[in-house]
Amino acid sequence: MEQLLASLDALAAEDLGPLFGPALLDRLGPLLAAQNRLAAEVARTVREAEVSGAAEVDGLKTMASWLRGHAHLSTGEAARVVRTGRALVQLPVLAAALAAGAVTGEQAAVVGRVAEPEHLTRAAEQGVDLGGVDTVLTEVAITRPHADVARAVHHYLQRLDADGPEPDPTGGRRVVIAKHADGSISGRFDLDAVGGEKLQAALESVVQAGRCAGDERTRGQQLADALVQLCDHQLAAGQLPVLRGHKPQVPVKVGVEDLVDPAVGAGAAELGFGATVSAARARWLACDGAVTRIVLGPDGMPLDHGRTVRLVPPHVRRAAEVRDGGCVFTGCGAPTHWCDVHHLLEWVNGGETSLANSALLCERHHTKVHHGFRVERQPDGRWRTQRPDGSEIRTGPLRTIPGRTGPGRTGPPLPAAA
């Protein structure tokens, strides 16, 4: 072990600066093989520790809990290592390939599913040659991409239980959400094939409909924006289940001083699930929301509350939709049902809630306008967008479509809708 650590120290001391592409790849290959071999030794050692009850030395019951506490592995990774160690005992061909560095620990965990107790029992009942399965699946793991390994294992397990009952699709579904200190969230989800297909179809429809010129978002960002947009649609539609007599909504609590002050005001507003956002973000949400005035006493108890007022009444929104036809930010044109109604002069600064003081903006560009960008409607009905430095965003010659105005369109303005 000392020799291994000394070798790692020597590798870490090497200067990679002088190396270029091919040389770096030549160095990477053996490192990945060594990583696989170490994964084999970790799994093998964990298995022996499990059999001997080594975790009891540190007052723990299982090796999974020991790996979580002492090795700082996540719950899922600790369970994967334990399962891999158990599977390698039943799958000697796979164990040899992992020990030689030919397959990864992740591949070994996938193939190892065939050695789970219930699958071993079914294989024995049907006279399946586990050694042959071990050889075939290990060869797939050595020669094919990871996705092919997963498909091969799935195919084997389906054939093994071909006459079994159709599984309940809801049984394996789960969503885990973790909230961070700044109020943002991350998480993971597991869906069955049909549920996953539904989610992908819904997200893809929003992604493709929202493509616009100059979109530099990554694929992951596009999908995340699409997920938020789906939530926006459902919340705005008002068809979600009622919670304690109220339709689900995004409440924001912010002091009137922060609401009026043009400063960012970090951490000045509180959302319904406990997250805090800036006053600037609260003003952004208030553009197309409803506002309730609540007066608090010195002890924080409400003394008075006013009537909830919808800032943008339906007839103004309909008129803006007819006039603008979509997001007016240059180069976007997202459909009207994705857009908020933005006050060109903020309502907290005396801006009227009127068609003349309104502009349709999608979520992304509404955010940009509240962070330095500016949209203006010209007397001829065209919208122009300026960057924070005052320069104008241009997308090329404007196309004339009679009777339409808005981003990238010219023509006489449409009459306001009632």
TrEMBL record:
SMART domains according to UniProt: HNHc (SM00507)
Biased amino acid composition, Low complexity: 394-404
Biased composition (Basic and acidic residues): 377-392
Protein origin, superkingdom: Bacteria
CDD domains for the chain: HNHc
Pfam families linked to this entry: DUF222
Region (Disordered): 377-418
HNH nuclease domain sequence ranges: 315-367
Protein's name in the database: HNH nuclease domain-containing protein
Protein species of origin: Geodermatophilus poikilotrophus
